[in-house]
Amino acid sequence: MSAQRMTLEPRKSSGLSSGIFCLHRAGRSLRLAAGLIALTVPLSGCGTGSLWDKFTAKDDTFVEEPADKLYNEGLYLMNQRKDSKAASKKFEEVDRQHPYSDYARKSLLMSAYSFYTAGDYDGCIGAATRYVTLHPGSPDASYAQYLIAASHYDQIPDISRDQGRTEKAIAALEEVIRKYPTSEYATSAKAKLEGARDQLAGKEMDVGRYYMKKRDYTAAINRFKTVVTRYQTTRHVEEALFRLTEGYIAIGITGEAQTAAAVLGHNFPDSRWYKDAYNLVKSGGLEPSENQGSYISRAFKKMGLG
Questions:
Q1: Could you say which of 43, 159, 243, 274 would form a disulfide bridge with 202 (CB–CB 3.0 to 4.6 Å)?
Q2: How far apart are alpha carbons 102 and 145 in whole angstroms?
Q3: Per-residue DSSP letters for 272-295?
Q4: Cβ contacts of residue 227 below 8 Å, gap of 6+?
């Protein structure tokens, strides 16, 4: 009996250990399942709250508005509030929401204008160029072209700097005059064109004077020659003719010096520069005398000034 108990007890003990192990493992599974349920509940709570709202809420970032409403809001912001930047956004919104409407065409031009008044010249040039491209036959195309030219013109730098922007302004202004010669903007373009040309002439004079100080007379003459042959109608031409007189005498080409002085006296007899040129020629025992074959003489005859 004792031996039987001894053999049974280990079996009983072994079955109990196995049962306890199974219960322990089942308990762990239940706890893990309970933990997962506990995690699921908060997530489900979030799903019915803000997270769920993100999936069910309507996207209100884009609200289409009538074209006339957006356009008039842009006019109000520009004219009444003097907020050109905000106005340009409204006009751009018209083009974005109603690209094929008549208001889109109007808004594109007003967008260019609002960019211009805000001093955003690149924005103005972009919008105005797009307008001219899309609506070349529109009565307002001349104004769009003028805005392009005015944007370049308003960025003309000081004569001490590179004049690339001035060249662009001249090209754009000439485009206004060429395409729309009878428009109201052609007159203003012509006035601006003279200002831009005067700026380029001033740049040539500035460089020419620099070379004169360095006694590099040939380089200086080339600069003054450019003023005489290309910018005869600017205010710098009188001094340019005197400087040519001065430069040619310095290198011993007296014939061109006499011609420069004579042309100066013929076209600007009351100029102080002519008095200086006349005295300079006379100091060398010469008289102002025009050589009709000289480029100086031909340049002024071509312009009807000789």
A1: 159
A2: 20
A3: HHHHHHHHHHHHTT------TTSH
A4: 201, 204, 205, 208, 234, 236, 237, 240
Within 8 A by CB and 6+ apart from 49, the residues are none
Return the percentage of the chain with pLDDT > 90, whole number.
Answer: 68
Q: Residue 42 burial (CB < 10 Å; 0-12/13-18/19+)?
A: exposed
Query: Which helix (H) or strand (E) segment is 93 a member of?
Result: helix 84-97
* C-alpha dist (Å) from residue 129 to 99, 143, 242: 17, 11, 43
Tokens of 148: 């392009």
Give CA–CA dist 267/241, Å, rounded: 11
The DSSP call for residue 229 is: H
Q: List Cα–Cα distances, 267 to 1, 8, 237, 261, 263, in angstroms.
A: 150, 140, 10, 10, 6
Identify the residue whose tokens are 């907020």. 83
pTM: 0.72
Task: Measure the CA–CA gap between 43 and 58, rounded to whole angstroms.
Answer: 22
- Tokens for 126, please give them: 């972009």
Residues in CB range of 101: below 8 A, 6 or more apart: 67, 94
Q: How far apart are CA 125 and CA 139, in angstroms?
A: 18
Computed from CA positions of residues 216, 219, 225, 230, in that sequence, does the dihedral angle turn out positive or negative? Answer: negative
Residues with pLDDT less than 50, the chain: 1-48, 51-52, 54-56, 58
Alpha-carbon dihedral angle through residues 217, 220, 226, 232, given to the nearest 10 degrees: -90
By the 8 A CB rule, do 151 and 173 touch? Answer: no
